[in-house]
Request: fold
Amino acid sequence: MEMLGGLHVRRTTDQRETVATVMALYHWWQKAEHKSFHVFNTAQDAAALERPGTLRRMAAQLPLVGWERSLEVGKKLAKVFERANTTESDWIIPGEIGPGIARKIVKAIRGE
Reply:
């Protein structure tokens, strides 16, 4: 589970050790200098046989696109240049991306 799914499993022997482990983890994640939250989440592709390309991972970061829709975006707009220079209507993908989401995507790309 750790290697393919990114899920860390911890085993404790009794209730006291469980509480100590949970408290230690809580305190670790509360530290201001902890930098793990400053990275992109790639857990959704951790179990994939092939690592998804940069274009799909970039598409997944767009507003309301996410992981599932990023595959369809990649099929329709296969190059970064196409994505950066398209209009809202070019982003519409029936059943996936409507006019409202397309508007938000274009605004995000243009930095508005």
